[in-house]
């Protein structure tokens, strides 16, 4: 069997720092005999600097050839005034679309050890473990037509098209029901069916797909209510499935339940479970270069990669367990430290992880 | 001067119960000599039952003629299986559009007395006072074209159009800057400018409108980040302005900061400050008819009506102050009671309010 080939895209600002720690974990695994190898590429601002485009042909080629992709974070002030077509986020949108990474998995997990860092009362989040499944290649993100036009009153207007087709909804629906089946067997589909035509079709198709999964309890919730319920009583949820734009909003909201976005990994999968794995946090220009960033979300992303793309849930579990051990031992980067606690750096956190791994 | 003419639309389920308490407050004000009168009409399910349409011609006529409208809540299981065109929410969407109620004001206020009922730690919400301004007659809610079509791959798809024109953005922009000017002088405009054409225009126009308000500090935030920041550190905001769909989601999320949606009023204004006032909560079919609903949000909506449509901020302040007094005296309906606290009914809460008023 040939080695699994991982493309690493550190990206911008803290991206390179956190990725260096994730690589330490890959090195341990390789030394233990795991059949993996990796190479590096550019995405986002770094790619624009090096090759004039946020998702350049060299990265495209490497990404298509890879078995999985590990990404740091992209974007930052240096690139804010670039023309839109070459801004870093176009690199992310580009690679998602190019590789057909339609299923974005975002677990939101509350670490007991970090309850003090959360805005929420401990009892609201204790034991929280939900999975948000966001469709990632459709919806209003890529919908045509879009642009500027003159409306019926002769005024200039901006417009975009939200849309979902039956096969797109079926595809994410199956992923969602299968994920729910492996967890608490409850799936909540979030839409705005009382207002949107796209949502009406979404709900119809979800109900139809659900007939293949009689063991999973399907419910529906309007997106406004979901935004409220996530804050009111997040533990009512097991798996949530929703479209690209609603998922963008709700998954960021839900990330706060975990206390720090420095702790949350994500996976974006294609139809064959090839995936791009990344922490959900951004490139944090304010702390970049200072050995301050929390590398744990990136390391947890390595775990998701082993679980989903390499079918090695055992390694994912070992990584998850090690993160808990490291937290229990009191290791804290600045984002998860309470006043008075000792703060360690990015490298030291990576080393602490490896020492316990 | 002729009397101010208020149209009361109790709506469905608890709508009639909470409205009866708001009317007690109107009666006190009238007895004190305020030049107001009121009449009743149907909206939502009640209107469908009585006249076959959720926003029937009789209500339309009365609403157009009124100086202000006070609404309870509409919708509920009885009407869920009706054809979409006559479902209760079409009554709400219909009256908003018909009267041009483009500016939806939703204050989110944390009552010290209710901190125990909130999911948030007291220090996160103590003293919270933010205003969310949601554009209410544009965006993807009413955008054309919308419907079903066959896409390029021959698959069926549902689609909707998001759009905003320059005059629509300017109009809500001016309301937002003026509101910020009367408060903390900070306005945060929320969009998804890194992805949507509609948002690009939105941001351009907000910046342009801002030139008329050099005393107000304008900032911009992506909607996903705003959903996160509202939970992480809500007190960073003063006034938030956003479009219809993002506002729907964010304002419901923000309502949870207040502890109970039973405490939150809202106003929807036209260009002349004629408005529709309503609690933000729904019709609560589960507790309807049991004298359990909290009437305070509806009573606070009466306060907003006096402030915005009748230019009587003094009465609004008196109502706000009385609500605080009532809470301080320990009066609690079920939604805001803690375990062990004495719970009173809808009518008793209305009476307690009037007694302190
Ligand atoms: C950068 C941006 C285009 C992106 C998105 O909206 O998808 C980001 O918010 C995310 O969630 O990954
Ligand atoms: C009932 C529904 C159409 C409505 C909306 O989405 O505007 C409601 O959620 C609201 O916020 O008033």
Automatic annotation (TrEMBL), chains A, B:
Pathway annotation from the record: Amino-acid biosynthesis; L-leucine biosynthesis; L-leucine from 3-methyl-2-oxobutanoate: step 3/4
Cofactor(s) needed: Mn(2+); Mg(2+)
One GO term of the biological process aspect: L-leucine biosynthetic process
Subcellular location: Cytoplasm
Binding residues for Mg(2+): 224, 248, 252
SUBUNIT field: Homodimer.
Protein name as it appears in the record: 3-isopropylmalate dehydrogenase
Species of the source: Sinimarinibacterium flocculans
